[in-house]
Write a structure and sequence with these properties.
Blueprint (H helix, E strand, L loop, with lengths): L1 H21 L7 H21 L10 H25 L1
Helix pairs in contact: 1-2, 1-3, 2-3
Organism: Lacrimispora saccharolytica (strain ATCC 35040 / DSM 2544 / NRCC 2533 / WM1) (Clostridium saccharolyticum)
Subcellular location: Cell membrane
Pfam families: Transgly_assoc (PF04226)
């Protein structure tokens, strides 16, 4: 149970930080931040493993950094797709 709560906290922080980097902060709620952070963690972990580095290793600063990187990538792709529709 504590592991799930830890992932939600890391996801929320990563999503919130990434939304500030990409300019989505005002348009995203807490639920969206958590979802983006969790998916971003998966993306960041996958990219880090491709580069030979370590991905998500637990509840620590490195996991937060990897999650933020993945979340920024995810939000950048979402923003690009939104711009194409307009």
């Amino acid at each position: 149970m504590m592991g799930i709560i830890s992932w939600i906290i890391i996801g929320a922080l990563a999503g919130w930080i990434a939304s500030m980097f990409t300019g989505n902060n005002k348009s995203m709620g807490a639920g969206a931040n958590i979802l983006v952070g969790i998916v971003g963690g998966l993306i960041g972990g996958f990219i880090m493993s491709l580069l030979g580095g370590t991905g998500i290793t637990g509840f620590n600063i490195w996991s937060l950094i990897v999650s933020v990187i993945g979340s920024v990538i995810l939000l950048s792709v979402i923003n690009a797709m939104k711009r194409q529709r307009e």
